Amino acid sequence: MPRKDVVFFLYFAAWFVVLENKGFFKQQEVVLTYHRKVPKTNTNHGQPKDEIQRNYNISHTYANPEIISSNCSLTVVMIEPKLTEQSLWVLESAAANVYPLHRTCFVIKTSICKVKQELQENSNITKSITDQYAFEQVAYSIKESSIAHPKFLEAINSGRVRMNVLDYEHYDLKSCDNFEGISKLFLNHDFWGNKEYLEQDSDFILNLQNDGIICRPFYVDNWREFAYVGAPWPPKTYLRNEMPDSWSRFHDGNVANISFPLFPTEDEIRTKHEFGPVGNGGISMRSRQWMRKATRYCPTIYSGLSEDERKVAPCKGNLDNGFLEDMFFATILRGMGAPLPTLFEASLFGTELRTPNEFLDVYRNIDNGTQEEFTAKRWYSPYTEIGPVELYREMQESNMFTVSLTFHKPWIFRHGVWETPHTRKYCPYFQYILPEKEKNYTTFSK
Ligand SMILES: *[C@@H]1O[C@H](CO)[C@@H](O)[C@H](O)[C@H]1NC(C)=O
Ligand SMILES: *[C@@H]1O[C@H](CO)[C@@H](O)[C@H](O)[C@H]1NC(C)=O
Ligand SMILES: *[C@@H]1O[C@H](CO)[C@@H](O)[C@H](O)[C@H]1NC(C)=O
Ligand SMILES: *[C@@H]1O[C@H](CO)[C@@H](O)[C@H](O)[C@H]1NC(C)=O
Ligand SMILES: *[C@@H]1O[C@H](CO)[C@@H](O)[C@H](O)[C@H]1NC(C)=O
Ligand SMILES: *[C@@H]1O[C@H](CO)[C@@H](O)[C@H](O)[C@H]1NC(C)=O
After folding, report:
1. CA distance linking residue 293 with residue 295, whole number of Å
2. What is the rounded CA–CA span in Å between residue 307 and residue 300?
3. The pLDDT value given to residue 75
4. Closest-lying ligand to the alpha carbon of 443?
5. Which residue numbers delimit the DUF5672 domain (predicted)?
6. For all residues of the chain together, what is the average pLDDT?
7. What pLDDT score was predicted for residue 439?
8. Which of 148, 180, 275, 391 is the most exposed place for a label (fewest CB within 10 A)?
């Protein structure tokens, strides 16, 4: 039985890789039309000269004076070779909801190679289009396409958005405009350090993809104490076994001194409000310091660390086929004793496979008072009128499900609740990333 469970899990994980890649690169129909206004003969330092004034306000660094002097309160990271209309809605949901708004920064890690190639093909100048020129065209297009996304446009105009071209070769991703193999990026020690982040960027970052949305205003300080926050996974036996088994494998079975913390029983979760598997990486908050610690403690072949460095590490990340970075960090961080939210708290942050109510159904008897205590702590915001508990009660009274702060393509596991007044009320931006066919379901379900 346990073997079967493990097999199921691996199948499940591998399936996820496929979905992940599809979602990441192909799901979106509307790709931003990059600006290709290249006049015939005018040249400017050998480059085509645009009629447009290139006030794109996105460069490699932040231009906002307050950010320069006092840093970002949170850096939001989007890794996407080709931004789409949907990407902009995801960014808009963050720009509108991550407080304090005026101190939230954005970094877009993207590609310019295709744009550069197209510009060259469409241009009559003999000189080569430079990277800088292509970069500016992409930046300008992003700004132009953000007209319909006022909060993100505001972030652009105020100099809180920067962009860089992802060094796909360094991370061994598929190609300059196809970031397939994205887990390798997250498993690389360098990805969490100065190669990718500036002095102004926060240690605690919010990672976004095209298929995750921020539902409501949320206050980052409520979560900063943690190493990693993501939507929890259901703590079924297979998942419980998979994590300790991997931990043991990573330590070559020699885990006498460093045994994996036991997963709490349901009773412990109920009475001590314990941990569960946390969690989904697609929309997650992470401490970069902890990511660096974890990638050094248990380096995988993708860590980018030298063989010598890997040899002295206490743990070796011998990954299975189909092993994903979020499962890896969920295991390592838990094993290392990193601060992680409890199952219920993590469910208040994000929904992927289960809603917060469904976790409560598994762990009955987390009483109303305790639920409200956690809600008060994690949903508190000095910037909103309605209090966290009031909001929580309102959702309970509606007899619908609790809408967490973020959604990561929850429609894959459950149909029928996403295109409802309830979801629209508590997660207004969600409709912009919900696939058309999901809008056909109107069943109300808890
Ligand atoms: C390039 O030159 C050809 C021939 O003069 C012209 O037809 C075409 O429109 C030009 N293309 C661009 C992008 O200016
Ligand atoms: C900004 O962050 C850097 C480190 O990333 C730190 O050295 C500096 O003191 C911070 N500045 C402020 C004003 O907090
Ligand atoms: C954004 O661009 C405009 C137009 O070039 C410029 O006036 C403004 O100062 C820029 N904003 C920042 C924060 O650099
Ligand atoms: C466990 O502790 C013993 C004695 O302190 C030490 O010799 C051994 O290497 C440790 N094993 C691991 C896996 O750390
Ligand atoms: C939870 O407790 C609050 C007050 O403590 C109460 O107003 C609310 O109705 C309770 N909810 C349920 C579902 O019992
Ligand atoms: C929507 O639902 C109806 C009735 O169940 C079905 O006939 C139709 O094919 C569905 N449309 C889509 C786009 O899924």
Report:
1. 6
2. 10
3. 98
4. 6
5. 173-354
6. 83
7. 84
8. 148
Total Cβ atoms within 10 A of residue 437: 9
- Per-residue pLDDT for 42 more than 70? no
Q: Measuring from atom 14 of ligand 4, which residue has the nearest CA?
A: 257
Judged against a pLDDT cut of 70, whether residue 171 lies above it is answered with: yes
The radius of gyration computed from the CA coordinates of the chain, to the nearest angstrom, equals 22
Cα separation, 200 vs 72, in Å, equals 6
Q: Please name which ligand lies nearest the alpha carbon of 155.
A: 3
What is the sign of the dihedral through the CA atoms of 59, 65, 68 and 71? negative
Decide if 186 contacts 171 (C-beta within 8 A).
no
Choose which residue among 53, 60, 156, 157 to substitute to test ligand 3 binding: the one with the highest number of ligand atoms within 8 A of its C-beta: 157
Closest CA to 141 of 55, 19, 41: 55
Residue 432, pLDDT above cutoff 50: yes
- Asked if 319 contacts 300 with a C-beta cutoff of 8 angstroms, the reply is yes
Ligand 3 nearest-atom number relative to CA 64: 13
Nearest CA to ligand 6 atom 14: 437
For ligand 4, the distance from its centroid to the CA atom of residue 257, given in whole angstroms, is: 6
Question: Number of C-alpha atoms within 13 angstroms, CB side, residue 74?
Answer: 25
Decide: 122 in ligand 1 pocket, CB within 6 A. yes
Q: Which two tokens stand for residue 182?
A: 């994205």
Q: How many Å lie between the centroid of ligand 5 and the Cα of residue 275?
A: 25
What's the predicted TM-score (pTM) here? 0.85
| Proximal ligand: closest to the CA of 255 | 4
Mapped onto helix, strand or coil, the DSSP state of residue 23 is helix
Examine residue 279 and say whether the peptide bond preceding it is cis (omega within 30 degrees of 0). Answer: yes
Mutate to test the pocket of ligand 6, among 411, 439, 440 (most ligand atoms within 8 A of CB): 440
Distance 417 CA to ligand 6 centre (A): 16
Q: How many angstroms from the chain centroid is the CA of residue 334?
A: 19
Alpha-carbon gap, residue 24 to 39, rounded angstroms: 34
